[in-house]
């Protein structure tokens, strides 16, 4: 007899429960800001990707409202049918100008952008070499292609060189890396990665989900930070859902990239375009980051302050150099317990354990934003000191 739906659901949920992997997301009862209300509690929020406080920013809301009034609630169709509004095209020009690239295309999310771009670009016979810690959407995107896939050790340029020396292809060769790694907060060594890629005639593909709006002058991204923004052999993709405050993804690079994606990227071809209010918010975000230098200053001042104080307390932040600040607790149960206790102290920060991160480096991932005040960060640091001592992670 075949499996019933009830049987399948019970089996799957039980296996997750037994592995301690069943997820119960906490619920935010107000907007996703530096201080918010979660599951009935006022908290300092260190769990969001809202790097520049754009998720609930007045300038973004004003432009979103005006686009909503003028353009309605939905784009009405897939873009190739009748869903390409002039505001979508204007946003793409804005992104290409901001990123200093030949072209840019906007998609529905960072996740679908990786699927769309990798799927559109790669063919059988091509070679892709991907950092072992790349994001799940890259891994899924690569699964959609018939290219030969190889992995190099995380941020290890010599290993990349070895893999490219041992595997050749007559087709396109693509080196794929995150710009900023979402779990460790480290930055890909793009200067050396691009040099090795070029030595082997390979193109570099950077997923800058956590670098766009964070790295580089005015948040232009990791590719800009390393000075490759005009390079035709570097493709940047990313999300518009983290620092940029809305939802969506972009791909930017070579002048012909956009045209190819319009014709080949399946999410572009088969999924309805972004809502006008979202487009308005994103357009305002790009204006605002260039108008208000205080946003980036506060983001990086807060980042430096929070890390320095955590180090003084004796915590290990894994050498992270970006606003993503992991605090190591060892094994998963300790990290989850710390997260629970921090929540009790009014700090919302998520514990991550195996398989999301390697065994032995279970951690709490904190993301500092421009919106946190010194009081917010001091509150969090006091909570960390208390919880870290109680769990024996730090001394004193
Ligand atoms: N790439 C990376 C590196 C990410 O961290 C994320 C977000 N989790 C994504 C892609 C997906 O972006 P989005 O949330 O816009 O789908």
TrEMBL record:
User: Which cofactor(s) does the record list?
Assistant: pyridoxal 5'-phosphate
Q: Which PROSITE patterns match?
A: AA_TRANSFER_CLASS_2 (PS00599)
Q: Please give the Gene Ontology molecular function terms for this protein.
A: acyltransferase activity
The protein's UniProt keywords, in alphabetical order, are: Acyltransferase, Pyridoxal phosphate, Transferase
Enzyme Commission no? 2.3.1.-
Pfam families according to UniProt: Aminotran_1_2
Q: Which Gene3D superfamilies match?
A: Aspartate Aminotransferase, domain 1, Type I PLP-dependent aspartate aminotransferase-like (Major domain)
Q: Where is the Aminotransferase class I/classII large domain?
A: 42-383
- State the family it belongs to: Belongs to the class-II pyridoxal-phosphate-dependent aminotransferase family.
Q: How does it assemble?
A: Homodimer.
Its name, as the record gives it, is BioF/Kbl family PLP-dependent acyltransferase
